[in-house]
Amino acid sequence: MPAPPVRPNSFARSSMTVRIALCAGETSGDQLGAGLVEALRERFPAAEFSGIGGDAMRAAGVDTWFDASELAVMGLAEVLAHLPRLLRLRKAFRQRVLDWKPDVFIGIDAPDFNLGVERWLKQRGVRTVHDVSPSVWAWREHRAAKIGESADRVLCLFPMEPPIYARHGVDAAFIGHPLADAIPLHPDRAAARTALGEPDDAPILALLPGSRLGEIRRMLPDFAEAARRLAADVPGLRVLVPAANAQCRAAIDDILGDAPAFRVVDGQAQRIMIAGDAVLLASGTAALEAMLCKRPMVVGHRIAPLTYGIVKLFGLLKSAHVSLPNVLAGETLIPELLQEDCTPDKLHAALLRWFRDVDAVAALQPRFLALHETLRRDASRQAATAVAGLLQP
Length: 393
Fold this sequence. Notes:
Blueprint: E1 19-24, H1 27-43, E2 48-53, H2 55-59, E3 63-67, H3 76-100, E4 104-108, H4 111-123, E5 128-131, H5 143-150, E6 153-156, H6 161-167, E7 172-174, H7 178-182, H8 189-196, E8 204-208, H9 213-233, E9 238-243, H10 246-256, E10 262-266, H11 269-275, E11 278-281, H12 285-292, E12 297-301, H13 305-313, H14 324-329, E13 336-338, H15 344-356, H16 358-375, H17 379-390
């Protein structure tokens, strides 16, 4: 039986001069990386940090060999067009990391890029951490074992994830979610409305069709029709629609036209959610954010029929729910209208309940607060503790 790989760089230097390599591939990962670096520096004041990151990580003191924007590629066609460059970047980056002899490598999200780098480095004796577990709780649980081949330790944002990894013999730690740290337990709706220039007493629907053009074009027409029907039942309704960027705004304006009840706002999605009486959104992190903002919501989502058929046929979706508030609660707290159920009629009816049933809205608040407190763990410091545990002599 071959000997395990030697850890040639494990505390070859003093723990005061620990070297930590990191890779973050987009804005959210860059923010996570910056918080983690600051928390690690509290433990290792003289530590050296290098790798791939953006402005936030550079401000935290990371020597970025490549910028995070070089990994920010979305969409199949775009990925294929950039694939040769990405493969060259990965090869150059992993070799530079190995030559630098870090005590640990931390891949932050971006699993398509980072897990391959982690696996290659781990095979050569470098300790590896993957920060932000892929959604193994939702589909293809067997990925957990493959992730364990890349990472010595996986950092999980949700409490249901470490037990899944444990079933596959993978070391994983629950660190909490950074959004739960950033969003107050009791958000100030009045302040949000003032900042947006909206009246304090007007009924407001926050409408979030997504931040990708394909999702906006697929979801917004039905979302907008549901909002128009809601406006007929809720006098004075204001519908606020955040646009993630100029391209999204153009697509939103094209679909909405000059409908008087709608107001498109550049960015400020979280503030709009806090200001709203209810939220209509596609599933994803936005549902978690709305929960942390303590707002009742309706989740509507559709994927391509062929994709949905494959998912159903092969049983790839393991969770009974798709939205994080319901997944975390283990029950249906908010309506999920998916595929053929995602129609203007059903979206309208589900939204109308939140505007008319005061008791139902009130019953959500303690549930959302309890879930918020579960996720509020000071994620950066928890992550630093988990990383430091691999750096013991």
